[in-house]
Specification:
Blueprint: E1 23-25, E2 31-33, H1 54-65, H2 68-77, H3 82-85, H4 89-93, E3 101-102, H5 119-136, H6 145-166, H7 175-180, H8 191-201, H9 213-216, H10 219-245, H11 251-277, E4 287-292, E5 298-303, H12 305-311, E6 321-325, E7 334-338, E8 352-354, H13 357-369, E9 374-378, E10 384-385, E11 392-393, H14 400-404, H15 412-417, E12 425-434, E13 441-447, E14 459-463, H16 464-470, E15 471-477, H17 483-491, E16 494-497
Parallel strand pairs: 6-8, 7-16, 11-14
Antiparallel strand pairs: 1-2, 3-12, 4-5, 6-15, 7-8, 9-12, 9-15, 10-11, 12-13, 13-14
Helix pairs in contact: 6-10, 6-11, 10-11
Length: 507
């Protein structure tokens, strides 16, 4: 377990932060003012009114013209993409797609979430399918991501309308009301949210509830649903105000009336979803799935979605797994949650055990050695190239600092603080390379859900440095976690972060 005071987060470049003499970095990487009787004074500005003057431009241009390296950059980068041009061959060679600790069982095929934000559901089902495929001796297999997507979207719609009832007394332009109405039914989600879905609705194989056009391209139905839900929220706010103005109506009757109206409005949501995604199996309704084993023999499985889920999650139950996070803004060794974040109303809250980054790495090593793939959340777009045949996630891979003569000095904490970084994507770690001398992991094999044309046949390699800076979450089963982390998770004594905190970002 990490200490209660965080270490100074490392920068991408590994060079010291450039701060003024009257500033310093505290132990969490934030800039703090220092008192000083004679602070260093900057030279006078060329534009005293705060605008950009031509004198500014002339001065900047003189500095650039005097630097041959920048002149070369201008020659090359005016007609080429900086991301593909400024890659380091040395860094690419130094991080091979080779690992000394890998899952013995190889699941497939590589999945593709297409034009949707369902990475967390793909990551979850990619983890769970390992046990299904091993038990049933399957060559290739996918669980239905669309099945979970349907029930998640339906429940998020209900969750938003319940929040609208709960906060009906707040002004419509209140920061919380405005925030909740922004991305109210995001495709994304968090680990505890998928546990809610699994425990309530179970799982089905993909042939039982296959992809539809709008599960693979969710933007059109999201736009329509958001439009209706915002309208419904205003309807409920108006009704709430009217009911509460009548003091003869009890609070219980007010709530009962509002929820009855909400259920009436939710029928429209269900109508749109069932028409565009298809009617899903009910969690307690039996289905028959017929399939071929890896040796071509016919077989079938009969039961309900909930029975299917329970039958194939016996070794590492999702309900007995939890999230370790590395958030250097906040104290380690504590349990955190995010206000108003969830999908199933009254379900399991989103919970994070905040700890040192090395604890996340060790949880991965323990899981891989135990034969369990690992769900993790990261900021995938930072210093990564997931192009076909590349698949590299490494802070040393892009030579931006050298090309532009700059220093990228934000720490992990500062990137969170300034909205530069957050959890944007969930994937699966299926292998790790551990240094034989130090026993420390140096790179990780990442299974993505962007199809075989992404990375090296759907896989990326992630460096240890990249992990430090841009991995925020690792899910670990209780049996593979430390006793200290399990104790913190089970304590229930949580710090509540505001709804707009970056830890509320949905992968």
């Amino acid at each position: 377990m990490g200490s209660s005071v965080s270490k100074l987060p490392a920068q991408i470049s590994g060079t010291p932060n450039v701060t003024s003499s009257s500033e310093s970095l505290d132990e969490k990487g934030f800039v703090r003012q220092q008192s000083s009787t004679s602070p260093a004074m900057a030279s006078s500005p060329l534009a005293t009114d705060g605008s950009i003057s031509l004198s500014n431009v002339d001065a900047w241009e003189s500095a650039v013209t005097a630097d041959p390296k920048i002149q070369l950059a201008r020659t090359i980068l005016a007609h080429s993409d900086i991301k593909s041009t400024l890659t380091s061959r040395t860094a690419g060679v130094a991080i091979p797609h080779v690992f000394n600790h890998e899952l013995e069982f190889k699941a497939g095929p590589v999945t593709n979430q297409k034009s949707s934000g369902r990475c967390w559901l793909f990551a979850t089902t990619n983890v769970i399918r390992h046990e299904v495929m091993k038990k049933l001796k399957l060559k290739e297999f996918q669980l239905s991501q669309s099945y979970l997507f349907f029930w998640d979207k339906l429940n998020k719609s209900n969750y938003y309308l319940e929040l609208s009832i709960e906060n009906a007394n707040l002004p419509v332009d209140d920061r919380l009301v405005n925030f909740l109405a922004d991305d109210l039914i995001s495709d994304g989600g968090q680990w505890d949210m998928v546990v809610n879905l699994l425990e309530t609705y179970g799982l089905v194989p993909q042939p039982i509830y296959p992809e539809s056009f709008h599960s693979s391209a969710s933007s059109p139905i999201n736009k329509l649903l958001k439009m209706k839900l915002r309208e419904h929220a205003l309807t409920l706010r108006t009704l709430s105000s009217s009911l509460k103005a009548n003091h003869s109506i009890s609070p219980e009757l007010v709530m009962s009336t509002l929820r009855a109206k909400k259920e009436e409005l939710m029928q429209e949501v269900y109508t749109i979803m069932s028409a565009t995604l298809g009617v899903p199996p009910k969690p307690d309704a039996a289905f028959t799935w017929e399939y071929y084993t890896e040796d071509g023999k016919y077989a079938k499985w009969e039961g309900t979605p909930l029975q299917f889920y329970k039958a194939f999650t016996t070794k590492f139950s999702p309900a007995e797994s939890f999230s370790l996070i590395n958030d250097p803004r906040n104290e380690y060794g504590k349990l955190y949650t995010v206000d108003k974040l969830g999908n199933i109303w009254g379900g399991r809250p989103v919970l994070y055990v905040n700890t040192e980054i090395d604890d996340l790495k060790q949880a991965i090593v323990q899981s891989i050695k135990a034969g369990q793939p690992v769900f993790f959340g990261c900021d995938v777009g930072q210093f990564s190239d997931t192009g076909k045949g590349v698949g590299i996630m490494d802070t040393d891979y892009f030579a931006y600092e050298q090309a532009f003569n700059i220093t990228l000095g934000l720490t992990k904490a500062q990137r969170l603080q300034t909205n530069e970084s957050a959890m944007t994507h969930a994937m699966v770690i299926s292998a790790v390379h551990v240094d034989e001398k130090t026993g420390r992991p140096v790179r990780f094999k990442v299974e993505n859900s962007w199809g075989e044309d992404s990375g090296v046949q759907g896989y990326n390699v992630m460096s240890d440095k990249w992990f430090d800076e841009f991995v925020f979450q690792v899910v670990v089963h209780k049996s593979l976690a430390t006793k200290e982390h399990v104790k913190i998770f089970e304590s229930g004594e949580k710090v509540v972060l505001p709804a707009w905190d970056p830890m509320g970002a949905l992968a």
